[in-house]
Design goal:
Strand order of the largest sheet: 5-4-6-7-1-8-14-13-9-10
Helix content: 25-40%
Low-confidence stretches: none
Number of helices: 13
Strand content: 15-25%
Oligomer: single chain
Shape: globular
Radius of gyration: 20 Å
Distance between the termini: 10 Å
Structural class: alpha/beta
Length: 419
């Protein structure tokens, strides 16, 4: 660590995903290699080129908030509040005993309240502009996610939302980490959320030719690093984490899952949707995260890859890992949890960080399911199909987004004496 900074630990986890409605059920499903990709049921997708996704089918917002609160939020905010409540409860925080001026919220979302936009546009077209809901703007704006979490839990510290496409919640977590590290807060609720698996959202990604078209076999459509991959699978959901200054956590006897050690962030400055060939920007982001955490690249054991299951991303990420780690790349263990839940866009980084944190805490590398045919251009160890018990002391979580955004987080086992 290159400065006199406060240490930041992770004390609470919450998640809403296609394979589990809590962080614990999500992690158990990840270890078991459960698949959450299926035909869409929440809207009529019969006219879409792609008719499946990582859909959350049994989510009830009122399990996590009052009916009145639920009515005044878009689905993406529902996921944010549900994840935050879980994470706070998991952390054991007594909100009445903390300094709420030093507890904040930083979340990520790539798109925000898309369902709210769709509903109100249709209403305006059919019934005129006067029938647009007065709640339209407050519901669809991205910062509604962090604002609603702060309001419900009374958190008055730093509060904002980060938008960097698929890197949004990795950036948000890194910035929340820095709020604590540099003294602006003692507790931060962070992560990300997305609910863009809507009729319009799906149509847009179909038109962009970004999605797998395996309508006859949705369960095997997301296959990161496999030679036969043909696009990503659109998903929905989100995750939340409680980050806490170490001494604050120790004073209250909190359980500590892991320590957040570093963040790296770059941009390709190349293309709005495609990664730069060779992965130079992604490689720099990984090395910056390692440097920020004060360790050597050779100490990394596991990487939770961005691993979208697209031709370009998986080749680029493999090349970036080789560029960053050299010969050590062949000793790394790498997996993509998108194979199980699809791509949650702005919520992806948070959910994948939760998997990374549990991997470090439990010494288990999650699997990349649906890995059947090796690709000569993707020639690393991707933990095919079954979770792998192994020692994991340091791990990276990678996120790369449209716009060339690259963000990486470094997680380490908590060591009372330091690294």
């Amino acid at each position: 660590m290159n400065c006199e900074c406060r240490r930041v630990v992770i004390t609470g986890l919450g998640a809403v995903t296609p394979i589990g409605g809590t962080a614990e059920t999500f992690w158990e499903a990840v270890k078991a290699g459960k698949n959450g990709i299926s035909l869409i049921e929440n809207f009529d997708a019969s006219q879409h080129a792609v008719r499946f996704g990582g859909e959350i089918k049994d989510f009830e917002a009122t399990e996590w908030m009052t009916p009145k609160q639920a009515k005044t939020m878009d689905r993406f905010s529902h996921f944010a509040v549900a994840g935050a409540r879980q994470a706070i409860e998991d952390s054991g925080l007594d909100l009445d005993s903390i300094d709420r001026d030093r507890a904040g919220v930083v979340l990520g979302s790539g798109i925000g309240g898309l369902l709210e936009i769709e509903k109100n546009f249709v209403k305006m077209q059919q019934k005129g502009p006067r029938r647009v809901s007065p709640r339209f703007i407050p519901n669809e704006m991205m910062n509604a996610a962090s604002g609603n979490v702060a309001i419900i839990f009374g958190l008055r510290g730093p509060n904002y939302v980060v938008a960097s496409a698929c890197a949004s919640s990795t950036h948000s977590t890194g910035l929340a980490f820095r709020e604590i590290r540099y003294g602006s807060a003692d507790i931060m609720i962070t992560g990300g959320t997305e609910a863009a698996l809507t009729a319009l959202g799906l149509a847009g990604f179909c038109s962009a030719k970004a999605l797998s078209t395996r309508n006859d076999d949705p369960a095997h459509a997301s296959r990161p690093f496999d030679k036969d991959r043909n696009g990503f699978v659109l998903g929905e959901g989100g995750g939340a984490l409680v980050l806490e200054e170490l001494e604050h956590a120790l004073r209250r006897g909190a359980k500590i899952y892991a320590e957040l050690l570093g963040m790296g962030s770059t941009d390709d400055a190349f293309h709005i949707t495609q990664p730069v060939e060779g992965g130079e920007g992604a490689a720099k982001a990984m090395l910056l995260a390692v440097q920020d955490g004060g360790i050597e690249p050779s100490q990394i054991n596991y990487i939770n890859a961005h691993g979208t299951s697209t031709y370009h991303n998986d080749r680029m990420e493999t090349a970036a890992i080789r560029r960053a780690f050299g010969e050590h790349a062949d000793k790394l263990v790498i997996s993509s949890t998108k194979s199980q839940v699809g791509h949650l866009l702005g919520g992806a980084g948070a959910v994948e960080l939760i998997a990374t944190v549990r991997a470090v805490h439990d010494d288990i590398a999650p699997p990349t399911i649906n890995y059947e045919t090796p690709d000569p251009d993707c020639d690393l160890d991707y933990v095919p199909n079954e979770a792998r018990p192994m020692e994991i002391n340091y791990a990276l979580s990678n996120s790369f987004g449209f716009g060339g955004h690259n963000a990486c987080l470094l997680v380490g086992k908590y060591n009372p004496d330091g690294q």
